[in-house]
């Protein structure tokens, strides 16, 4: 598998007169109460009040996300010095537009325009939506240019060669493009099937990305994992002909005196359940079980390109959970890297076992904060549904800071409690802990209680992304499949930290 180092679409700014510059499509923003973008105003003037009349009559809808694609009107001229098609984009109440919605709007808009190949799309939203939202629209637009159908002879998604943003600043465009490309990097990794992405090929892709953006990277192969005592990672990967890996990336954006933050991702490149085998319905999407690791990788890429002034170490624990004569078994006791003994009572609760050693390696770097991301439990989806990530923590202020970053970016998270008594459920009769709770009740939390045994005294937040990481069906603003969820939140949180917020 050779992962493209994605630069899907060239994003640039333009100051040209929109009605006389060449474009396959001119995208024109229209909001409630007569709010119009620059090009909408020009069009309206040129065509004798046509835009405002059409809005008044209800023929053009301004509701947020409403898209109207049509051939260009004769009044703006024809040929190479005029746009060929127009698309009106409803922005709704511009006062109420927030970053998450701006992102979704950018994505929905481009998803409508990738049905056929286009060279140049010109977007006029400046003057209508606030400057602070421009990067979010650009990021969303980039996300809208990629999807899950990556193995079709006839591509379903045809990204334009260029998107030119009228009146957007270069910095907003560059920042949005980096975020969007990084989300797509994460999504591509997750959407790639498990015959292409396995621990070694994931590590190779991470190395290529690291080289591309200037991240330091170290890959522990199975021999190194053995000498490092990563017996838990090795146990989960023991059945597979694709041996486990641990990827350690470093980005030092701050100076030497600044503390390190650790991002840790679950990278189970395929989760068959192992001997506690999953039924087909439960297994069918389990190529997505490395979404946590792919999110860490995408986030490291983004912060390196954005040059955020923070020091971050990113760790991906990679293993394939399979079945063979060498598989780990029910009743096995594994001594994890930190010395804790784990009784295995369900080989399908493998993510926490991989994370046990991965978190311990993170702790060794003495981070001031650890955030882990994992498609960890179906129970979290039962609790919160498909669209919301669960937060569990041993440190309220850290969790609060992440929650605020998520809120600002419009990504949905909700905190679950970590009362002490939940910890009773993972006590084992033969070892220090066992890898399942007593019953399925509170399964997201008992999994987090297990992870807590491996973070030492470090402030830590666990994000269970089993629900939102991989979508069953598409929506106007995103394709089905991998979503890249939480990357924007992590970048926003790290930006906040660089700005001195707690
Ligand atoms: N990878 C799964 C969790 C999952 C389920 C992620 C659905 C995304 C969508 C995880 O390894 C798992 O199998 N968890 C078990 C734990 C149980 C055996 C204690 C689960 O949730 O059923
Ligand atoms: Mn599992
Ligand atoms: Zn899993």
Secondary structure elements and pairings:
Layout: E1 10-14, E2 23-31, H1 38-46, H2 50-57, E3 67-71, E4 83-92, H3 99-113, E5 120-124, H4 134-144, E6 162-166, H5 170-191, H6 199-213, E7 216-220, H7 222-227, H8 231-237, E8 245-252, E9 260-271, H9 280-283, H10 291-306, E10 311-321, E11 333-335, E12 341-343, H11 351-364, E13 369-374, H12 378-384, E14 389-393, H13 396-409, E15 413-415, E16 433-434, H14 443-452, E17 460-464, E18 470-471, E19 481-482, H15 487-498
Parallel strand pairs: 1-6, 2-4, 2-5, 5-6, 9-10, 9-13, 12-16, 13-17, 14-15
Antiparallel strand pairs: 3-4, 7-8, 8-10, 11-12, 14-17, 18-19
The chain binds ligand BES, manganese (II) ion and zinc ion.
pLDDT averaged over residues = 96
Count of DSSP strands: 19
Based on secondary structure, the structural category is: alpha/beta
Q: What distance lies between the first and last C-alpha atoms, to the nearest angstrom?
A: 40 Å
Q: Report the uncertain regions.
A: none
User: Tell me about the biggest sheet?
Assistant: 8 strands, mixed
Q: What is the number of helical segments per DSSP (H or I, 4+ residues)? A: 15
- Biggest sheet strand line-up: 7-8-10-9-13-17-14-15
- The value of Rg in angstroms is 24 Å
What is the 3D form?
elongated
**Quaternary organization:** single chain
Strand content: 15-25%
Q: Name the ligand types.
A: ligand BES, manganese (II) ion, zinc ion
Helicity range = 25-40%
């Amino acid at each position: 598998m050779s992962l493209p180092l994605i630069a899907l679409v060239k994003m640039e700014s333009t100051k040209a007169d929109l009605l006389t510059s060449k474009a396959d499509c001119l995208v024109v923003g229209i909001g409630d109460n007569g709010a119009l973008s620059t090009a909408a105003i020009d069009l309206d003037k040129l065509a004798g009040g046509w835009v405002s009349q059409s809005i008044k009559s209800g023929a053009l809808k301004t509701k947020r996300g409403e898209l109207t694609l049509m051939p260009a009107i004769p009044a703006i001229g024809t040929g190479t010095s005029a746009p060929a098609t127009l698309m009106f984009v409803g922005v709704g109440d511009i006062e109420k537009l927030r970053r998450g919605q701006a992102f979704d709007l950018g994505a929905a808009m481009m998803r409508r325009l990738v049905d056929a190949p286009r060279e140049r799309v010109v977007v006029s939203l400046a003057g209508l939506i606030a400057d602070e939202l421009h990067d979010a629209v650009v990021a969303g637009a980039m996300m809208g240019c990629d999807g899950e159908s990556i193995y079709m002879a006839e591509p379903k998604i045809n990204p334009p060669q260029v998107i030119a943003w009228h009146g957007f600043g270069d910095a907003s465009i560059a920042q949005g493009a980096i975020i969007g490309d990084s989300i797509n990097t994460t999504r591509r990794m997750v959407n790639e099937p498990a015959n292409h992405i396995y621990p070694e090929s994931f590590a190779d892709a991470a190395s290529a990305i690291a080289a591309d953006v200037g991240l330091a990277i170290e890959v522990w192969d199975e021999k190194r994992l053995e000498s490092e005592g990563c017996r838990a990672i090795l146990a989960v990967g023991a059945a597979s002909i694709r041996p486990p890996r641990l990827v350690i990336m470093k980005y030092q954006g701050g100076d030497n005196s600044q503390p390190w933050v650790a991002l840790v991702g679950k990278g189970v490149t395929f989760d068959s359940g192992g001997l506690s085998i999953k039924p087909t319905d439960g297994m069918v999407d389990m190529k997505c079980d490395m979404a946590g690791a792919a999110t860490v990788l995408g986030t490291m890429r983004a912060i390196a390109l954005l040059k955020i002034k923070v020091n971050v170490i990113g760790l991906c624990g990679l293993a394939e959970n399979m079945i063979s004569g060498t598989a780990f078994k029910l009743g096995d006791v594994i001594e994890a890297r930190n010395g804790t003994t784990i009784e295995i009572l369900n080989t399908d609760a493998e993510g926490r076992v991989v994370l046990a050693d991965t978190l311990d390696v993170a702790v060794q770097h003495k981070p001031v904060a650890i955030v882990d991301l994992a498609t960890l439990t179906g129970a979290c989806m039962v609790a919160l549904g498909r669209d919301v990530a669960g937060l569990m923590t041993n440190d309220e202020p850290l969790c609060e800071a992440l929650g605020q970053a998520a809120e600002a970016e419009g990504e949905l998270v909700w905190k679950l409690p970590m009362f002490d008594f939940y910890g009773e459920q993972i006590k084992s009769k033969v070892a220090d802990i066992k890898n399942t709770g007593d019953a399925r009740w509170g399964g997201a939390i008992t999994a987090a209680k297990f992870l807590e045994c491996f973070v030492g005294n470090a402030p830590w937040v666990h994000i269970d992304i089993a629900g939102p990481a991989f979508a069953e069906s598409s929506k106007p603003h995103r394709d089905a499949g991998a979503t890249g969820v939480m990357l924007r939140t992590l970048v926003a949180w790290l930006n906040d930290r660089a700005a001195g917020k707690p």
